[in-house]
Amino acid sequence: ETVMTQSPASLSVSPGERATLSCRASQSISNNLAWYQQKPGQAPRLLIYGASTRATVIPARFSGSGSGTEFTLTISSLQSEDFAVYYCQQYKNWPRTFGQGTKVEIK
Amino acid sequence: EVQLLESGGGLVQPGGSLRLSCSASGFTFSSFTMYWVRQAPGKGLEWVSGTSGSGHSRYYADSVGGRFTISRDNSKNTLSLQMNSLRAEDTAIYFCAKDHDSGGPFDPWGRGTLVTVSS
Fold first, then answer.
1. Is the CB of residue A37 less than 8 Å from the CB of residue A55?
2. Residue B43 in contact with residue B110, Cβ under 8 Å?
3. Which of B61, B105, B109 is closest, CB to CB, to A43?
4. Nearest chain A CA: its distance from B48 CA (Å)
5. Alpha-carbon dihedral A9, A55, B107, B93, rounded to 10 degrees
6. Cβ contact B68:B49 at 8 Å
7. If interface means Cβ-Cβ distance under 8 Å, which residues of chain B face chain A?
8. Most buried residue, A29, A65, A85, B5, by CB count within 10 Å?
């Protein structure tokens, strides 16, 4: 099983500041990496796939990078609606696996 | 517009069974791999199972293998999850999700159905 490890577990950021979230895979997954955003009481929403491609209607302030085993999600200027939990997920191998999540909180 | 609507959740006793359904619309259902993902209260996401468009290939997390069975009826655009020998740790919101158009990531997701396993 490919274990996905996210860091940090939580992040306190002021509106307008940059947030950087990390995700590490236990083995190479090439660029088969997605990022999701989940707000309380809602289903997850796809933000980034292919490690760096924004999904439909996702704002340009969200960007992804990395390949192999190390990946990063950057939110360039946090807006109020961005405070949420973010998950990475690999889709190269079965079983599909998620990281444990990073909660982005208002500072 | 793609829509996924889960149903079938509820309260069940340990050792019991439950069948979840996901009704899909807005896309060619038989062309896409479909998934079940769950989220225990206050916890993260856990992938549960997936099935290819034809239904011939099925995949399971170790935590549910041998107890859960995924299936699909492409004539009715419906994905199902038969859950047997349920345990307290199976308590979660169960989401169904569609393979992204590019293949691989999950997009979109349904709103989920709550399964509670308790005596």
1. no
2. no
3. B109
4. 8
5. 30
6. yes
7. 35, 37, 44-47, 50, 59-62, 95, 100, 102, 104-112
8. A29
Predicted local confidence at residue B103, as pLDDT: 84
A27-77 per-position pLDDT tens digit: 999 999 999 999 999 999 999 999 999 999 999 999 999 999 999 999 999
Q: What is the pLDDT of residues B29-43, one digit of tens each?
A: 999 999 999 999 999
**CB contact set of B41 (below 8 Å; sequence gap of 6+):** B91, B92
Q: Give the count of beta carbons closer than 10 Å to the beta carbon of residue A98.
A: 22
Which among B47, B59, B62 has the least Cβ separation from residue A98? B47
The one-letter amino acid code at A65 reads S
The two three-digit tokens of residue B35, written as one number: 């998934």
User: Which residue in chain A has the smallest CA separation from B110?
Assistant: A43
